[in-house]
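User: Hey, my collaborator sent me this sequence without any context and asked if I could get a structure. I don't really work with proteins. Can you help?
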Amino acid sequence: MDTLATQLSALLSTGGSRNCLVLTSGDTWLALSGEKGGTTITCEAVTDDHLPGSSKLTAQQRQALMAAGFTPIKHSSRLQRRYDLEGQSRPGEVAATLAGLLDDVYGASTWTLTATTSDAHEETNPQVIRQMRQLSRSRSHQDRINLYRSLLRATLLVPVESAQSQKPAVIGDISGFEVFGAFTDQKSALYYDPRGIPLRAVGGRELFPMLMKLRAGSLRLNPGAVVGGELYRNELESIAGAVVRVTLR
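Assistant: No problem. I've predicted the 3D structure and written it out in C-alpha cell form, which is a compact way to encode the shape of the chain:
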C-alpha cells in the first residue's frame, strides 16, 4: 500500500504534464493520470468498453462504482472520478480506497503497477476536426477532398508498437489487411485507451506513403471518439498518390 501511495504522489511531483499510473489485475484496471505541480488526479475504472465479453460488468458492479463517486464520461458509458491529493495523509487514504475498489468491485486482491511520466503531446489539429464534422454533414466529394488536404498538412499522433519503436501498431484487421490508427490530439488517444499508449507524431506527407508500404487496409481516425472516421485502402492510395505527384513536380 505504501508503494501505491508513493506512486500516487509521484503523479503530481515528478515527470511532466501527462503522467500515468495503471493498476492492473488480469483484464481489470484502474487508469490514473496527473500532472507535475497539480493537486488532483483523474481515475478511470475499466468498464464494458474495454472488457472482453466474458468479463462484462454486472449491474451491481457498475452501481458500486457510481456509489464510490464515479460518473459517466460524456458520450460514453465509461466511468471516472477525481481524487484530491492535498494533505500529507491523502495519498495513503486514496491508495487504500483504490485497493478497496479493486477488491470489492472486481474481486482483485493483487495487482501490478505501471507508471509513465511525460509531457502531453501538443498537437490539436482543429482544421482536421472541422473537416471531419463538415464531411459527416454534407458527404460531398469536395468536402472529402478538403479533408484529404487537411490530413496531408496535419501532424497526427500514430500508435506505435512500443515507446522505443517507430513502427505503427496494428489496431485491427479488415478483409485480411492490417488496420492502423491516428489521432488528432492526445485527448482523443486517451479516449481510445486511458491507460496511455505509445504515440509518435507523424506528418501527413510521411504517414500516407508509409501506410502504403505497410499494405494498410484502412486508417482509423480518432477511433472510439465522438469525431472520427475511417479511410479505406482506395482513399489511402489517393492521398499517398497526391504526395508522390507533389514530390515529382
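In plain terms: The CA atoms of residues 127 and 150 lie 7 Å apart. You can pass these C-alpha cells on to your collaborator as they are.
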